[in-house]
Amino acid sequence: MTHIANASVSLIPFKLKTPVGGSGVGGVDVIIVELTDMDGATGLGFSYVLGGGGAVTALAARQQVERFASGAIPPPQALWRNVAATFNRTGLGPNLVALAALDMAAWDLESRSRGVPLGVAMGGAARPVPVYGSGGFNAAQTPDQACETALRQLDLGLRAFKPRARGARIDALLLAAVRKALPDDIHLMTDANEKCDLAGAMWLMSAARDNGLLFVEEPLPSTALEGYRALAARSDCAIATGEHLQGRGAALPYLSERLATVFQPDLAMMGGLTPILEISQIAAAFDIGIAPHFLPGLFAHVASAAANVTWLEDFPLLEPMFEGWPQWDADGRMSAGGEPGHGLTLKEEYRRSAQSV
């Protein structure tokens, strides 16, 4: 058991200079949990609400810390189960998003107190995983602008790219243009950000196949389970999805029925590193790859412990708030760092702006 000497929860409203991604996110509310044990070892965790509105989640995190992270606490996976067991009356929602911050802090503290990297504490060893470029693309781009973004990221060393689709005829022109602009040994994917209906998704899957894409991400809304069943049965292009699914139960049909070839869990929506590691193990039984939703420098540690993490996504969003992110190598691959824990520290300017909860 680990004995906690101090625990804190804070909220940081993080405003972006310009909206980013296919959803046009303009700001993020970041929930920070910090734990210190009796020996002075510390653990830092965070979760987030994209688009803002994270005050309720921060209060949920405060309650979880007060109930479960004072005095003696069990190892991270047991702590996660203890907290999650209380959601049977109140549901997932902000509860699960809040638990992601506590879970990450507990894993960081566990690995720091043992003096090993997070991925090693999870039972793995560092290994390089390819990174694909996702940041910089948006659904309003012309084909020429998408090509410029891809070529700029190619110059930075990345070897795969994911431009945005908008569920319109121009998608085929854009994908063909980017495919033509890139060398033949470069992988190309696309992200529809849930913009298509079933007919549009089937058309987009055909366009993706014709242009040699590796996968199409979120061709349908995450709630369209029957649509995904129809799409998986009729399309010969790989489907990727998962970032908007909350909890392991929501993920299971996509894995057990092989509705997704690539599953993309989100740290906040899944409730932390513990369930993502478990989802990765379940996906492995069905030969499904894992490509976590953004935060490649954190998920490089999960890749250490889960061999089916096949891709990491470079979508810079929260990175400016923290120091210690690993960089990809000359082949566009990233490995977890060798320092204890996840290796991230909150920058002082953001620590000063944090609102205690």
UniProtKB/TrEMBL annotation:
State the name under which the record lists this protein: Mandelate racemase/muconate lactonizing enzyme family protein
- Which SMART domains has this protein been placed in? MR_MLE (SM00922)
* Domain (Mandelate racemase/muconate lactonizing enzyme C-terminal): residue spans on this chain: 143-238
Q: Which InterPro entries match?
A: Enolase-like_C_sf, Enolase-like_N, Enolase_C-like, Mandelate_racemase_C, Mandelate_racemase_N_dom, RHMD-like
Report whether Lipid metabolism shows up as a keyword of the record: no
Q: Does the keyword Lyase apply?
A: no
Q: Which UniProt keywords apply?
A: Magnesium, Metal-binding
One Pfam family linked to the record:
MR_MLE_C
Provide the taxonomic classification.
Bacteria, Pseudomonadati, Pseudomonadota, Alphaproteobacteria, Hyphomicrobiales
Gene3D superfamilies, per the entry: Enolase-like C-terminal domain, Enolase-like, N-terminal domain
Record's superkingdom?
Bacteria
Which residues fall in a compositionally biased region of kind Basic and acidic residues? 345-357
Q: Which intervals of the chain are annotated as region Disordered?
A: 334-357
Source species, please?
A: Nitratireductor kimnyeongensis
UniProt cofactor(s) = Mg(2+)
